[in-house]
């Protein structure tokens, strides 16, 4: 039988994790290790938050300044020990901002604009979930599902890293979107430059510049080079509640509307599915799109409570 870890041992370990976070927080593998440690014992979250609060009051530049190697190690040990003691003595009220994590979600059809504490802004698309953790050396964002666009405030000492499954996107001050798909993630850059890689994928990060897009596979990383895409504005029109069609097929357009609406569009006729369409619509107006498509291609629509059926008119 394994002895239960004592509170003092947890406080000491939490102090070591806080020091590591300040030094290695931008390491993509560090967050996974930390989360695994926190999950193993519910007491660890409180200890970590208390140690983190103590760390903020220290002069980190003097703590980590290069000195004689032996003295530096002794100094580091004393800091960790002091943090452990401080963690044990801080009141439970400090636990409230644990890890400074904020979670944001959107429902079907909802688009949400979220200002962050560091000055960055996120636009979160329909049916999406984002988790933001602002740390001393890293701004970590986890896209659990869906799509989000980020306008990142410049902070050279705290890179901004988005985790989308195994895919990672790193920036300092730029603007880009990440859409999580089955098998990988789409990355579109509207300003600046980002680096894209896959955890444990074995391939080096690929740079993606403004006006370019890339798809990163979960298992293999970026297999094809980033390519210029003049259509980024159309693809990000959702930020303004719009769907812009510029030669997409009716089947593709219907799938896009169905991302935002409970009432689904069904293109029931294969002769219509491949027809290409141009138009501008609100994301919550599937009826308007269906009527415009039917008028353009001599089709007809049948409306049900849960669906809008688009097919070729009889005799066409």
UniProtKB/TrEMBL annotation:
Q: Where is the FecR protein domain?
A: 104-195
User: Which Pfam family would be a valid example here?
Assistant: FecR
Q: Does the keyword Transmembrane apply?
A: yes
Q: What Gene Ontology molecular-function terms does this entry list? A: sigma factor antagonist activity
Q: Which InterPro entries match?
A: FecR, Ferrdict_sens_TM
Q: Which UniProt keywords apply?
A: Membrane, Transmembrane, Transmembrane helix
- Would the keyword Zinc-finger turn up in this protein's UniProt record? no
TM region(s), chain numbering:
79-100
> Which PANTHER family is this protein grouped with?
PERIPLASMIC SIGNAL SENSOR AND SIGMA FACTOR ACTIVATOR FECR-RELATED, PROTEIN FECR
What name is this protein filed under? Answer: FecR family protein
């Amino acid at each position: 039988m394994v002895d239960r870890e004592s509170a003092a041992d947890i406080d000491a370990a939490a102090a070591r994790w806080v020091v590591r976070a300040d030094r290695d927080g931008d390491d993509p593998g560090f967050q996974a290790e930390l989360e695994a440690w926190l999950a193993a014992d519910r007491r660890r979250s409180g200890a970590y938050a208390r140690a983190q609060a103590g760390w903020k009051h220290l002069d980190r530049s003097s703590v980590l300044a290069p000195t004689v190697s032996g003295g530096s190690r002794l100094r580091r040990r004393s800091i960790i020990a002091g943090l452990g003691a401080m963690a044990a003595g801080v009141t439970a009220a400090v636990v409230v901002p644990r890890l400074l994590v904020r979670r944001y979600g959107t429902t079907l059809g909802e688009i949400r604009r979220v200002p962050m504490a560091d000055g960055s802004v996120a636009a979160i698309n329909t049916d999406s979930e984002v988790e933001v953790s602002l740390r001393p050396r890293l701004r970590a964002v986890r896209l659990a599902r869906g799509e989000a666009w980020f306008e990142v405030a410049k902070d050279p000492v705290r890179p901004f890293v988005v985790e989308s499954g195994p895919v990672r996107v790193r920036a300092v001050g730029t603007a880009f979107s990440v859409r999580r798909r089955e098998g990988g993630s789409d990355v579109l850059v509207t300003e600046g430059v980002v680096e894209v890689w896959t955890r444990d994928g074995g391939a080096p990060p690929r740079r993606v510049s403004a006006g370019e897009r890339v798809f990163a596979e979960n298992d293999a990383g970026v297999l094809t080079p980033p390519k210029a895409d003049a259509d980024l504005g159309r693809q990000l029109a959702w930020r303004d509640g719009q769907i812009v069609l510029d030669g997409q097929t009716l089947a593709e357009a219907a799938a896009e509307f169905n991302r935002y609406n409970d009432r689904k569009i069904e293109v029931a006729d294969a002769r219509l599915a491949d027809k290409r369409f141009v138009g501008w619509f609100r994301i919550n107006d599937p009826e308007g799109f269906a009527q415009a498509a039917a008028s353009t291609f001599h089709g007809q629509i049948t409306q049900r409570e849960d669906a809008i059926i688009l097919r070729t008119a009889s005799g066409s």
